[in-house]
Amino acid sequence: MSTIRLRGGRVYDPANGVDGEVRDIGMRDGRIVDLHPAERVDRDYDVSGRVVMAGGIDMHTHIGGGKVNLARMLLPEDHRANRAPENPLELASSGCCTPGTLATGYRYAEMGYTAAFEPAMAISNARHAHMEMGDTPILDHGAYVMLGNDELFLQMLAERQDFQRIRDYVGWTIKATRAMGVKVVNPGGISAFKFNQRKLDVDEDHAHWRVTPREVVQVLARAVHELGVPQPLHIHASNLGVPGNIESTLATIAALDGLPGHLTHVQFHSYGNEGARKFSSAARQLAEVVKAHPNVSIDVGQIIFGQTVTASGDTMRQHANADLGSPRKWIGADIECDAGCGVVPFRYREQSYVNALQWAIGLELFLLMDDPWRVVLTTDHPNGGPFTSYPHLIRLLMDKSFRDEQLAKLHPDVAATAELREIRRELSLYDIAIMTRAAPAQLLGLADRGQLGIGAAADIAVYRDDADRETMFTAPEYVFKDGELVARRGRIEATPVGGTHFLEPEYDRGIERELARYSAEHLSTSWRHAEIGRDELCSCANGGRLLPCRLHGRGGRT
Amino acid sequence: MTAITVPDSSTAPTGQPWTCPFCPLSCDGYRISAGEGPALVDSDCPRAAAALSHFGASASSAMPRHDGRPADHASAIAAAAAILAGSRQPIFGGLATDVAGMRALYRLADASGAILDHANGGALMHSTRALQDRGVFYTTLAEIRNRADLVVCLGTNAVDHYPEFFRRTAPAAGAPARQVVFVGAAADRATPGLDGCTTQEIPFVGDVFDTAALLAARVAGRGTAMSDPALDALAARMQAARYTVIVWESGSLPEHGALVAETIQRIVNTLNRTTRAAAFCLGGGDGGYTANQVTTWLSGLPLRTGVHARGLVHEPQRYAADRLVADRAVDALLWVSSFGPDLVPPTSDLPLVLLGHPDLQAALDDRPDTIFIPVSTPGIGSAGHLFRADGGIVVPLTPIYADTLPTVAQVADDIGRALAERRRTEQGGAR
């Protein structure tokens, strides 16, 4: 394999405490290596004056699976405006809000991203999700399986079954679906909607199972922790989008009781109900609580003005929001006693008070949190806006005057009163490298990603330093994936198939007998198809490499 | 109709677990036995039996054919590539294949600028266009099993074309009591899976469009010029039910069937404001949903899309394969029918590349300008994956014997390589 040297770049590698030092980076056989300055290399890139970071990692982006494909089908208008690719390496693929998987891979790689993770894989939709991710070129990927709305889990909880049995079931689910983490969406609420319940607060009973979201979160967080899943329980909290939902969000943090938890797209969960419109920012309130809870990390789910489509497992909340959609059409589904789905197109408007405030709340959350290691940069693609708006978002965070300019265009009441006006902080390149590389890698337990230390995967982005950070982050000079040049100045240079990260936790296989019985009595697929084997995963994921994740030390052992 | 076969344990023929690829219910709970030819053991499903009758106990040794004469694989591939290379506007039709086949066909369509349509494209567009214009609220087999207390089959008895539907959705342990109402259709009460349910038949009021519209108006509480006591009573029952499922069949609807799909969505949306309801569309067979899902995720657009040099163009009405072929708006046809010999290409004298079940050869006679490449059937001769009727559920298929025939994916990839090689040679020659 080839040896490559990137000479003289300014390196931002927070995982190794490197903050803008000028140094060389060597690559051999897809890994970062220590090259002697005199050692001859196959390719030598002079990157002096350039900014060098690890490849970007998006830990929460809806890139693959049922609801994403439904979103594509729902909005042909988003995909009709397209041109054939000029680059013969690219296959035709269209769309802005929810691009085809091919375009998703190309556009991410062009921005310097080398991994993206689907956060909401339904148990019954796992094969489909892996197929779409496998057809997303260049990027490594993985998925978090949704639990906490499956009737079996809720039944076990309602029957007060032994925690160990529930933990075994969680372990089995992760292994069977080839997930790399667990997500809970509106804990219990998706199931409750199937029983015609329209609202579920953290301490409210599920209409049928008589368990509360608090219990669901507690048990799942403990199971995930004890199984040794590196990634904290990924939590889409109760009452998404509801004014005053900060109470639910804080109650969810309290429910964790010190266990690790990652609250996702918190922008949609940081709303107060103050003021004449009964809708206000609770960003500071949330930031203060998260600061005081080192067990909690967040990603933001920033909104970006313009057309997008929201795709969520949260049928209960998406049904409630469907009347606000634009254009007025939507998709919902009750799925296989394990999940739901709601797809609602949205157009975020600068002149809407609510949308303008959502925008400000997202930025406030980024800027008020003091520890960038616990804040991940996301738009909850496509829910807050498409991932292609990341360079714009980075500029908003790094450039106070640009931010003020944008704020001035918004609904006058927001422009005049948002706390955002007073926040002077501008994030540094080091902060951005944490929020888009080092922190997501650390949260996901990917020891050899998101960093540029010796032995790490040679996933690297090299940017031209430009005062306009949006320009800078839109089309890096070079992007390497496993040591292969995959993009240069916004043009794709190679399209390798990405690898799949997945976990194989240990659990007592005695649970499988009960799961088989439940499957026969209640589900619609043969038990023999319940688990995706390694070979089958490989064929689903288009032949990409299998990347088993390491469990934390106590994984699977009591 | 489908009398259930309960195997007597002492005399039961043995068989291996199997997943049926011949209908979008993708039944994976029945065994298959291999005698003279493969046969289902625990089900009398006539659709599966008819499909299985086209397979022997072991693999076929069929050869490719070029204008009716036997050809080896390499020359058949080269001739197929020549047809695509010489075409200004090819169409890929049929598309009865699995996920891997469709992935490869999309790459080939990209390389050759083809339009993509499925053999059941018209029916597929009823549901797709309604979804694009209004959306959908759907449910899945296991949800019906556990939740539905009212199932309304609108214009279909389900079992004529989906014989195992009621057995696959029969109430689970602890599920509520269920009533099944057939509107404009009739079903045998002895249908497996209907035992334990109460059933009722209501005639159409006018046609299916009138009936759906009237029901939508009644469910929404609107007065109408026409009125029908049976439909009024049904509307009231739907409002009172805890979980209504409206079952419809896209393939049995007349032209403009998308309007019925839209009306069903309106009914479901109305019901969901106060109680719970969802739709279930019986459709997507012959790999239709599979082809649509794969095309959508790769390209961003569903079927009836052209991968043209000017970009992707989605034309749900204009890009109907049979019409484009009849109008000679295309100049070459690649037809894929890997599940059986019944999906034949539209009649024409256009150059034809046919990837299909070996028995399709009989339908071709000595048609000129034809390359026939027999391919393996997923779930019979090769492994594969298919999407089930309820959307996101993908079932793995395992073969019952090792095939000698190549898969659609292998053939499409081979043609793609041959096409690329031709172009390289042509460019080299031009220089």
What does this structure look like?
The complex is a heterodimer of chains A (558) and B (431). Chain A has 558 residues and is α/β, with parallel strands linked by helices. Chain A has one domain: Metal-dependent hydrolases (TIM Barrel), CATH 3.20.20.140. Helix content of chain A is 33%, strand content 22%. Chain A contains 19 helices and 24 strands. In chain A, strands 1, 2, 3, 4, 5, 19, 20, 21 and 22 form a 9-stranded mixed β-sheet that branches. In chain A, strand 1 and strand 2 form a beta hairpin. Chain B is α/β, with parallel strands linked by helices and 431 residues long. Chain B folds into 2 domains: 178 residues, 3-Layer(aba) Sandwich (Rossmann fold), CATH 3.40.50.10490; 158 residues, Dimethylsulfoxide Reductase, domain 2 (3-Layer(aba) Sandwich), CATH 3.40.228.10. Chain B is 33% helix and 21% strand. Chain B contains 13 helices and 20 strands. In chain B, helix 7 packs parallel to helix 9. The longest helix of chain B is centred in the C-terminal third of the chain and has 23 residues. The radius of gyration of chain B is 23 Å and the shape is globular. In chain B, 60% of the residues are buried.
